[in-house]
Hints:
The chain is 36% helix and 16% strand. It is of the alpha/beta class. It has 2 domains: 2-152 and 326-343, Glycogen Phosphorylase B (Rossmann fold, 3-Layer(aba) Sandwich), CATH 3.40.50.2000; 155-324, Glycogen Phosphorylase B (Rossmann fold). It has a 7-stranded parallel beta sheet. The chain has a 6-stranded parallel beta sheet with strand order 10-9-8-11-12-13, with helices on both faces. Helix 1 packs across helix 13 (327-343) and helix 8 packs across helix 12.
Amino acid sequence: MRVLHVDAGREWRGGQNQVRLLLRELARDHAIDACLVSNRTGELARRLAQTVPVIGARWSIGLDPRAWWTIRRTLQQFRPDFIHVHDSHALSLVRSTRTRVPLIAHRRVDFHVRPGSAWFSAHRIVAVSEAVGRILVADGIPPHRVTVIPDGIDAAEIRANAIPPMDIRGRLSLPPHTPLAVNAAALVGHKDQITLIRAAAEARALAPDLHWAIAGEGERHAALAAEIARRGLGDRVHLLGYITGIDSLIREADVFVMSSKEEGLGSVILHALALGRPVVSTAAGGIPEILGADALVPVGDAAALAHKVVATLSRPETISLPDRFTAKSMAQATLALYRRMVEAGGGG
């Protein structure tokens, strides 16, 4: 079974790591002959170079015509049975080649899809959560085209990546036992770190020694820095920028916090659970499919988030990582989807 995977791969985020894990697991099955087209200078291409054949494309903008030519040439040479795309830009470029090869599209966000968009051209859509699947169906995607396959992680790999320690408190010149809440996400609107900063302001009276560390970079950096300054939180809320050893940072947290207002699943929460960290989050998108109600607060409710974080510091509780959120389970479910499509005649 020949499967061509396509991912824009211009940034290294949770979605790119999911592609890496999926292809790594699928490479263990000799029934799959996989190939990846991705940005030739991207981190995804680098990390998968020893796992599957990687066709590097010049891919500096989302709908880069140079990437289109690479995809088209690879389709002619590789002659796949299926194409599996992992983001909207990859989907649009593959669709524009007018190929008749059955197309599988991975949907990792819980945003609505526009009528007539490229998502309606996919023979199957893999939704990373039931929440994402419900939105797709509500927006007009036929239910039989939607398959829910949760993201997965390699817990042993995550624990190994968390060594050696980062010593984030030392880097921030904080005493060794300073209470620390950590958020790790791109600094973009739907991750809603503004609510996190407002929660930090609310929590100051409740837990004066509590510090908040936000790891990530993105378009909202200046706005977040301004909000921190406006609220006088420069000594309590720390914008760390992009962190390469994110698992080491999460391991050093007293509580891991997510403030998203939209979230396909939240695979970074799985990392926190694998590292035995308590988690507090907004009930956005697919997050309630991972966490119980005791760990959740309403989206956008800074006061509730502050109180939940402070309560968790005094009564930390962790949950075990459910088996369905492993990389192996994700790959097995994906392979089962491929086989069902073969039995149905491809795109049937």
